[in-house]
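Possible regression after last week's pipeline update?

I re-ran a chain I had predicted before the update to compare outputs. Posting the input and the new output here so someone can diff against the archived version. Not blocking, just want to make sure nothing changed silently.
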Amino acid sequence: MASESLHSPNSRSSSRIPNFFKMSISERISELHRRGLLTSDDVHQLVSRDHQLDAPVADKMIENVLGVFGLPLGVALNFLINNRDYVIPLVVEEPSIVAGLSGAARIARLGGGFLSDPVDTVLIGQVQSVVDSDASKKAELLLTEKLEILSLANSLHPKMVARGGGAIDIEVFHHKAEEDGREMVVMHLLVDTRDAMGANMVNTMCEGVAGLVEKITDGKVFLRILSNLTDRAIARTKVRIPVANLEGKGFTGESVRNGIVLANDLALADPYRAATHNKGIMNGIDAFAIATGNDWRAIEASAHAYASRSGRYKALTKWHKKEDGFLTGEIEIPIKVGTVGGSLETNPSVKINHRLLGSPGAAELAGLMSAVGLAQNFAALRSLATSGISQNHMNLHARSVASSAGVSEEHFETVVERLIESGEIKVWKAQEIAKDIARKIVRPDSADRESASGKIILLGEHAAVYGRPAIALPIPLAVEASVRKRSSVSNKGIDVIIPRWGVEQKVVPEAPGIPGIMAQLIHNLELSKEAMTIEVFPNVPKAMGLGGSSALAVAIIKALNKTYELALKDAEINALAYKCEQAAHGQASGVDNTVATYGVPLFYQKERDDPHFETLTLGQPLELVIGITGKESLTAEMVARVRASWNQHKGRYESIFDQIGSLTNQAKDAVQSGQLSELGELMNLCHGYLNALQLSTPEIEELIHLARINGAVGAKLSGGGGGGSIVALCPGSANQVARAIEKAGYKSISVKVDE
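New output (post-update):
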C-alpha cells in the first residue's frame, strides 16, 4: 500500500493539465504527483519500473508462461464526471484513443461534463435443469422455494452477505432443446457481488444450489455457471454540449452537431454501421478495463449482446439535437466490474491506477467506464462529421513516427506536416526530412546572437555555500540571446520573448520572475528608456540544476553589450550576472554566473565574501551524460531548506560539508591527472553525502542506477537537488548510458569537456 493518502479527485482543475502530451514521461509523473493524484510510492514504482508485472508473478497467473507482453500505460485528461475531476488510466497501443478521449472530455466539460447514474452491482448465475415434462410447472416450483434457495446460496459466502451483498433474487425460464426437444428449466440466481468481480463467487453459488434445484424440479442439472450478459448492471451516462463548442476545423457547430446525429441514426438503423460504431465505444472502455484489472472480454460480450436485445443489432448510444440547439448524447450499456480481488492483488500497475482514480467502488467505476465509452463515441463521430477518421489517425501516426525517428523539438511539427504531405509515414522518411531541414535552415540572426554556458557541478554543491570548494564544468551554448532595437515611437517599452519557456511579455520592474530581474538589470545598465526586443533561445531545460538562469542572464548581458556598444569586460558581465543570480536564488555561490561568463572548467572556493576561482586543466577529456528528471528543482528553495537544517544542527551539517569538501579537493587532483576511475568513485561518494542532506528523489536515484549499470564510472545529482539533473562520468560508454536513460522515459544531454 502507498504510504501517503491521495487527494480525492474533486478539484475542477485536477484533470486539466495543459501541454501534458508535450511533457516527458518523468515530467508527467511528477505533475500528477504534485497534484496529489499519485503517492510518492506510486512515483517510485513508476520511475523505477517496479510497477511492471514480472515473469515470476505472471507464471503464477496463467500456465506455460514465457514472459510478459508490454503495452503503453497512459492517461486521458479533462474528465468531469458527476462534478468530479478524474484522470483516466488507459492501457492501449492506439494513440488516437488517448488523444480522442482527452479532446472529447475537454469539450464535454465546457457544458458541465458527464452525468452518470448509479449502477447496480448484480451478476447473474444460471442453473440449467433438464426435466422430462411440465417445465413451466416445475419453474413455478422453484419460485415457491426461493427463500430456501437464496438461504443456501448465501450460506456459501457469508462474508459477502455481511458486506451487504449476496444472492438477492431468482428468476425462472423454460426452453426446449433444439437438438432433441427436451425441456429445460433455467433458474437465474441474481447475486450482488458489491465491489468484487464476483465470477468465482457466483459459480460457487450455482454449484452449491444445483442439488436443491434438481430435487425441486425432479430433473438433472447440467450447466451451472455465470452469465456474462450483465443486464442487471446497466450503466447510463449523459452529456450536453453547447453547439458553439463543436465548431472548428472549418466547420460550424451546427453542421458538426447535425453530422453527429445523422451518423448515430445510421448506427441505429444499420447493423453494419452499428458494429463499427460500438467497436469505437469499446475502444475506450476496453483500455480502461485493462488498466483497472477488469475482464474486458466479459464487458465486450455483454455490451454486444445487449446491443442485440431488440432482435436487431443497434448502436449503444443515442445523440439528439435539443430544442435549445444543444447536442445531447446518452449511452446505456451493461458494465459489471470489480475493484477488489483478482488481478488487483497481483498486478502493481492496477493498484496504482485505482489510486489514480481516487480508489472508486465498483458501482462508481462502472459509471466512469460508461462516461469514457460515450466520450470515445463522441470523439469518433465528431471526426467523421469534420475532417474524417483517417486524417486524424494519420496525424497521430505521423507524430509517433517523428518521435521514433528522434526528430528534435525545434523541427518536430515541420517534419510531421511533411510526413503527412508525402504519404510515406515511415521512420526513414522522417529522418530524411529532418536532415533536409537541418541542411537548408538559415537563421539570419544567428550571427547576432550571443551565447553563454550552462554548468554542471561535478562535486561540491551546497557545501560551496559554506566555504568549501566546488568543481564546475561548462555546457557550451546553453543559452543564446539577441537584442533588436525598435523605434520608440511605434512600439515603446522592452519586450522579452523566450518561445521554448512560454515567456512573451513586457519587461517592467514589478513583474515577477525573469522579466522583473531583467528590468533591474536593464536599469543598472541605464537602458530603461530604450525600446527593444530581447529574444532568448535556451538549449537546456529550465529549473534542472544546469545553470540555465545564469546562462540566460549572461547571454542577455552580452547581447545588450554588443547591441548598445557598452564596452563591458567579462569581469563586469560576471558581476552583473551574479546580482541576477542573487535576485533569482537568494544565497548564491557565484559558480553558475562565472561558468556562464567564462565557459571554462573551474575550481571554486568562497573565502569569506571573496570567491576564489581557478581554471582547471584536464588530464583527459571528460565524457559526461546529463540525465534530466523532468521535475523542477528550485535552487532557492533547496538552498533555504539546507540552511534551515544547518541552523538546527550546525555541527552535524558542518561535518558533512567537510567530507564533501575533502572529496572535491581529491577530485581536483583526479581531474587534472586524468584519473577517471578515481574521479568516478569520488562522485559516487559525494552523492552519498548529498543524499544524507535529503536532496535526492526517486527520479534521481533511478537515473543514477541506470547510469551506473550501463557503464558510468561515477554518477551523482548535480545542482540543487530535489529534482533537476544528474551527471554521469562515462568514458567510452556515453552513448549506452544516454540510450538507457531515454529508454526509461527521461531526457539526456551528452557533453564532452576537453579544455
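Follow-up from reviewer: compared with the archived run. The chain is about 45% helix and 20% strand. Marking as no regression found.
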